[in-house]
């Protein structure tokens, strides 16, 4: 029988017990994986193993996909009216809201987040997205199209069928919901492959989905490794679409596999090396705070992190000093401590990866102005780190580090800043700080990225699309645009009197 993971939280910020089913959730039931394997779950704040969950394989993925296919044919899709799909999504949002604190505690513990951030950002954003797409469920429809008097033509927005959702470890619940909410609103059934590093919140979500009353098989979760479970989901011939969020390296692989198997549709939300441009006329105090937040939130493990910071020469010295001071003052610690502003990175692997980038920055001759080391003691903590005097071809300038490390570069003119900002294979996000509205719009238009934030950090809204240019991926999540990612358009032509 599948087990249960239980944890007693006795912290100032959250007291209470949390339970999570550790089986696979297939066809509305908790089941053991066919091979009986498990995955260890770690607490990144101290490196200890806190539990085990099931490790699904290709065999489990096959069972889950078949359950999703059967549910699509029998009890979901357009057979269920949009208002009913919406009602279930509203119910799910209510359940998340009712259990928001314990869900946030699970997420904070598993991913090494600050509990406050998990509660007021991750879980709240998931609730907001569920409500937003619940509203869309009965409002997405086709058109009637004028052609000739002899023909009646219309379009339908049909679901794709079974969709595979593959999610990373940095915002495990929130990113899963960015995909789940529009996929269910438009009538698809789901197999979710959660990251092996942070499996707990998706399993908890499955309990709420069952309680909300979604028919069995509409939503399935298989926890497991990428090369096995993730690969099997991407290869499966009954899966009509894969929506993937993760690294550019694996995204490329997902696309290749999809092309080689059944040419399934693919949405890719990939990595970034997002530019931040701070002009001389920016509000210095506010821009330092926002730049810091967009760089160091969740220890820099943010796809949209503003890691390349271009500062105009008139304020360069003052800005750099203020940014280094702000970085040094960030309180690191366990996510459940009141004073904690920044937790650890997610795993030993990630810790080593981030430290090796810091080492390469030092060796390539960049000047360290803040941080630059692991925090002594237990847990995977890396000091908020800033480098200056970098060259465009350094590894720390070109590659996504996915940790609390930023580089600062001086520039003279707007043209020079735009050119440097666009000198990257990525194009996920960007940030501009200036009080000149014309310049803000001009620069936003010139930057090659899917999102441009002006005088603000990475603050997203469910109504506004998010997605990459260049090698940061294609397709959009959130907003009306995400509905297109989970539907296909059928055109119907009806003869009103053309005879042969
Ligand atoms: P990753 O690419 O290693 O893994 C992502 C997911 O893919 C995991 O669930 C993993 O198990 C699975 N996977 C691994 N190999 C697979 C394979 N062969 N086939 C199918 N699935 C496979 O990424 P990560 O380390 O979990 O997350 C960090 C990366 O995610 C960073 O590059 C970050 O920029 C990116 N990210 C992007 C966005 C966005 O919206 N653009 C958001 C968050 C994270």
UniProtKB/TrEMBL annotation:
Boundaries of every Aldehyde dehydrogenase domain copy: 30-492
Superkingdom of the source species: Eukaryota
Gene Ontology molecular-function annotations: aldehyde dehydrogenase [NAD(P)+] activity
InterPro entries: Ald_DH/histidinol_DH, Ald_DH_C, Ald_DH_CS_CYS, Ald_DH_CS_GLU, Ald_DH_N, Aldehyde_DH_dom
Keywords for the protein's UniProt record, in alphabetical order: Oxidoreductase
PROSITE patterns, per the entry: ALDEHYDE_DEHYDR_CYS, ALDEHYDE_DEHYDR_GLU
CDD domains, per the entry: ALDH_F1-2_Ald2-like (cd07091)
Record-linked Pfam families: Aldedh (PF00171)
Active site positions: 269
Family, similarity comment: Belongs to the aldehyde dehydrogenase family.
Protein name: Aldehyde dehydrogenase family protein
Lineage: Eukaryota, Fungi, Dikarya, Basidiomycota, Agaricomycotina
């Amino acid at each position: 029988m599948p087990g249960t993971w239980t944890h007693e939280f006795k912290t100032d910020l959250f007291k209470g017990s949390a339970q999570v089913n550790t089986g696979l959730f297939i066809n509305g039931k908790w089941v053991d994986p066919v091979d009986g394997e498990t995955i260890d779950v770690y607490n990144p704040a101290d490196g200890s193993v806190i539990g085990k969950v099931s490790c699904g394989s290709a065999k489990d993925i096959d069972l889950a996909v078949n359950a999703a296919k059967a549910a699509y044919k029998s009890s979901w899709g357009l057979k269920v009216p949009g208002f009913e799909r919406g009602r279930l999504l509203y119910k799910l949002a209510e359940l998340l809201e009712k259990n928001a604190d314990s869900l946030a505690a699970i997420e904070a513990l598993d991913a090494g987040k600050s509990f406050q951030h998990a509660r007021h950002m991750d879980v709240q954003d998931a609730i907001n997205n569920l409500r937003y797409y619940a509203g869309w469920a009965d409002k997405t429809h086709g058109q009637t199209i004028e052609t000739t008097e002899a023909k009646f033509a219309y379009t339908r927005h049909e679901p794709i069928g079974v969709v595979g959702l593959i999610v990373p470890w940095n915002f495990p619940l929130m990113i899963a919901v960015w995909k789940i909410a529009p996929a269910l609103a438009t009538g698809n059934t789901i197999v979710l492959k959660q990251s092996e590093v942070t499996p707990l919140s998706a399993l908890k979500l499955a309990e709420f989905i069952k309680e909300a009353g979604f028919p069995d098989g509409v939503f399935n979760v298989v926890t497991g490794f990428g090369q096995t479970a993730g690969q099997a989901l991407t290869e499966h011939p009954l899966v009509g679409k894969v929506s993937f969020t993760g690294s550019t390296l694996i995204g490329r692989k997902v696309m290749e596999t999809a092309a080689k198997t059944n040419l399934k549709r693919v949405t890719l939300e990939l990595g970034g090396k997002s530019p931040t441009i701070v002009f001389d006329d920016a509000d210095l105090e506010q821009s330092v705070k926002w730049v810091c937040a967009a760089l160091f939130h969740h220890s820099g493990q943010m796809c949209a992190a503003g890691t390349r910071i271009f500062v105009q020469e008139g304020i360069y010295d003052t800005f750099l000093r203020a940014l280094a001071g702000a970085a040094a003052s960030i309180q690191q610690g366990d996510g459940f401590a009141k004073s904690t502003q920044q937790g650890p990175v997610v795993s030993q692997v990630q810790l080593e990866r981030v430290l090796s980038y810091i080492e390469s920055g030092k060796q390539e001759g960049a000047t360290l102005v803040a941080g630059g080391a692991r925090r002594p003691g237990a847990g995977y903590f890396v000091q908020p780190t800033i480098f200056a005097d970098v060259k465009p071809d350094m590894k720390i300038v070109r590659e996504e580090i996915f940790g609390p490390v930023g580089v600062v570069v001086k520039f003279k003119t707007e043209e020079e800043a735009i050119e440097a900002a666009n000198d990257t294979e990525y194009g996920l996000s960007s940030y501009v700080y200036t009080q000149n509205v014309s310049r803000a719009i001009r620069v936003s238009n010139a930057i090659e990225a899917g999102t441009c934030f002006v005088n603000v950090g990475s603050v997203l809204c469910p109504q506004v699309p998010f997605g990459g240019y260049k090698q940061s991926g294609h397709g959009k999540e959130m907003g009306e645009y995400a509905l297109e990612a989970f539907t296909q358009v059928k055109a119907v032509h009806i003869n009103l009197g053309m005879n042969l």
